Amino acid sequence: MVLKVLMAITGLIMIGFLLVHMYGNLKAFLGPEEFNHYAHWLKSDILYPLIPEGWFIWIFRFFMLAAIGLHIYSAATLWRRARIANPTPYEAKKTLAQTYAARTMRWGGLILVGFLVFHLLQFTMQRTLVAGTSGMEPYDLVVAEFSVWWMVLAYGLWLVTVCMHIRHGFWSAFTTLGANTSAKARTVLNGCAWVVAILLYIGFMIMPVAVLTGVLH
User: Fold this and answer.
1) Beta carbons within 10 angstroms of residue 155's beta carbon
2) Cβ atoms of residues 126 and 134 within 8 Å
3) Domains of the chain: which residue ranges?
4) pTM score, two decimals?
5) Which of 91-108 are b and which e, b meaning 16 or more Cβ less than 10 Å from the residue's Cβ?
6) CA–CA separation, 49 vs 54, rounded Å?
7) CB count, 10 Å around CB of 11?
8) At CA 117, angle to CA 114 and CA 119, rounded to 5?
9) 2-212 — its CATH code?
10) For 89-145, what is each residue's pLDDT tens digit?
11) CB 42 within 8 A of CB 193
């Protein structure tokens, strides 16, 4: 039970991060100056002078890395225990009523982590750039990278996996935490899970599509 709660809490932390990150991305529609100021603020001024300038981003990165690591550990341990308890795939399928998203949570998680690493190398460390050059201003870098059609397509497909993972994860997390208590609660919970997943997909895709179509340039 402890691992299920840990996985639920760390999953909700990551969903919260994605919602904030999505909001930050939308600042691109306010123009280069606003977006660049936001990007530089994230890496320098948060909580300064309470903590030294530039420290917050590293503390936050460590916190998120710990959350991701604990989430993966919890998921892997629970999956391994489930396999030991139900070693026969046929029996497991017969006793567990699962949606497609639920059945693919493990693979979806691996795909999510794989592209996340690429995404961080691309925009944070600027080591896997497909069109931009290292040292560009954040707004110019985003425009350069998402001006490539296949990058937008790959990003969109990755987000499908992310949002499928989130829809089921949101449902599972709140079920673990005791919110799934009645038929009405299940309906509300399922609706909220879909709203969050669709909101994140649209919110993250608006900016790349706007770049590709020339709305942002």
Assistant:
1) 19
2) yes
3) 2-212
4) 0.87
5) eeeeeeeeeebbebbeeb
6) 10
7) 24
8) 110
9) 1.20.1300
10) 544 444 444 555 555 566 666 777 888 888 888 888 888 889 988 889 999 999 999
11) no
